[in-house]
Each structure stands twice: as structure tokens, then as C-alpha cells.
Design brief:
alpha+beta, 3-stranded antiparallel β-sheet
């Protein structure tokens, strides 16, 4: 779990978009968080991973911009923006294990073929019953 010092990101209050009545035009309750990835104290490896994320919130200069306006209060939006920043950094810090190709076992192949044969037999039984012509 990586924590980022408060001095490394910049918070600014802006007006929130969307519905909110008369209050929305007076109060700057949304938060813009700017985090300069190349200038941060993160390891070089993690900086590279963050910059190369396919994320539209990261600019060409490597600045991550988050806009938090989910809550009505500025303080709640600040906490939300900081939490989302930590989530992004911590997910970039995780390395997925390498996948290696496996083959199905002989027994699993046999079981699959047996079930296919059984399903085919069930479906054959659904057909029309051929009547004998000698009965008339």
C-alpha cells in the first residue's frame, strides 16, 4: 500500500456541474486534483507504469487530473479525490502473475466426448417415431 504525501498533489475547488438548484451556482464544492507523476517521489518503475496507463485522465506531460464532484460538500469530495488517487497508484503497483499455457488432461477430454455422445443420443430420441407400414 503506497501513500502519497499531501505536498505532491494540488487540490483546487471548482464549481460542480449538473443539477443542484440555486446553491450550485454559489458554492465551489467540486475538487480538481492534479498529481504530477514525473515530479513525484514514487519509484521510477511505478512512474513508468502510471504514465503508460491507457487512461484519459493522464495528460501528455504525465499529470493525472481527477475531478471529484460526487458529494455535496467540498470536504467529502476532497477525501474522494485522494482516495481515488491512491487506488489508481496502488493498482498500478500490482503485478499480475504470468499466465502459462496448459492442456486439458486425457480424462477431461474423455469426459467431454462422453457427454457430447450422451447429448446427441438424447436429441436423437426427440425425433419422430417411424411407424411400420405392415400394420394396415
Amino acid at each position: 500500500m503506497i501513500t502519497i504525501p499531501e505536498t505532491e498533489y494540488d487540490l483546487s475547488a471548482i464549481r460542480a456541474q449538473g443539477a443542484g438548484g440555486q446553491n450550485v451556482n454559489k458554492v465551489s464544492s467540486a475538487i480538481h486534483l492534479r498529481f504530477d507523476i514525473p515530479a513525484s517521489s514514487l519509484s521510477d518503475w511505478l512512474k513508468e507504469r502510471l504514465i503508460h496507463l491507457k487512461d484519459s485522465r493522464i495528460t501528455d506531460e504525465g499529470v493525472l487530473i481527477l475531478k471529484a464532484q460526487q458529494y455535496r460538500t467540498q470536504e467529502a469530495n476532497k477525501k474522494d479525490a485522494i482516495k481515488r488517487l491512491h487506488e489508481i497508484v496502488n493498482t498500478a503497483n500490482q503485478v499480475k502473475p504470468m499466465r502459462y499455457a496448459t492442456r486439458p488432461s486425457y480424462g477431461s477430454k474423455q469426459r467431454r466426448l462422453e457427454s457430447k455422445i450422451q447429448r446427441g443420443q438424447i436429441k436423437q430420441m426427440r425425433g419422430k417415431i417411424a411407424s411400420d407400414k405392415n400394420e394396415h
